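USER:
I wish I could look at a protein chain and see how it folds. I am handing you a single protein, as its sequence and its fold in token form. As I understand it, each token names a local backbone shape. I hope you can help me see how the letters and the tokens relate. The protein I mean follows directly.
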Amino acid sequence: MRLSKLLLGLFGLSVLWPTAAQTEWPKAKPVTLLVAFAAGSSTDIVARTLTQKLTELTGGNFVVENKGGAGGNIATTQVKRAAPDGYTVLVHSVAFAVNPSLYSDAGYDALKDFVPVALGPKTPNIFTVNPGVPIKSLPELVEAAAKTPLSYASSGIGTTTHLSMERLKAAAKVDIVHVPYQPAAAINAVVAGHTQIASTSMPPAVPMIKAGRLKALAVTSAKRSPLLPDVPSITEFGYKEFDDYTWFGFMAPLGTPPAIVDKLNAALNKAMESPEVVEKFAQLGLASTRNSEAEFGSFLKAEVPKWAAVVKSSGAKAD
């Protein structure tokens, strides 16, 4: 009798296990958006802005977990090793594409170890100066740099804010001393006059520009930013190869089922198109465009070698 009850119990479990395993994504358990940087970072803000919408759209439970360190590499390698079931998603910045060339061993291959899910919002970088500096335009900056020692603050070694200025320096054949800061501190350094120039993403710079505490010289995108329509694009000054952005993206572990990737891509695009998210992103100088997994993959295939070339030419190293 005991044996028959045991066999009956095991049979019952064998029926339940497949049912649980086959629960439609994302309702079996919470989906963790593993953010590659600390709470309060731009990447974190992007993730948290989308979580509630993703929950509403899918009926699942989306939660944010921050795993900062090593320029985002700690979170990236953790997601690389995660189960490819759609319940762990990496939320990273453009550093995802830069780090494999910036570090001697980033711990991952940006083009081989992940499934691209969706490109999130992006923002051009921007060159600004302290109002006390007698420079009113990008050509005047280049002219001054050729005659006088100048320094610029960026959001850190190997960030696109650092590399965008290095690209300008190489193209203009001038030298400007790089002073790396934490992202939030870079703008404050220029406002305080510790450096004359800043190369940052737009979110921290825009409020200072509108308050008259910084002068904007140029954005690094091929076209002007709608957020600051009076600020020229760098291409207007003859630098034709520029179209540099700080962007944010969503990646899943290699092997994640295409059906789940499709659902997550659709939910992310719909969330980013919702009026409240569009407004929130606009306040931060961010904008998103609907894109497919394949389009994000093609974007990464262009970004990784692009930044690898800039890292090599600039000599930037993070370790």
About this structure: Residues 18-123+246-314 form a domain with the D-Maltodextrin-Binding Protein; domain 2 fold (CATH 3.40.190.150).
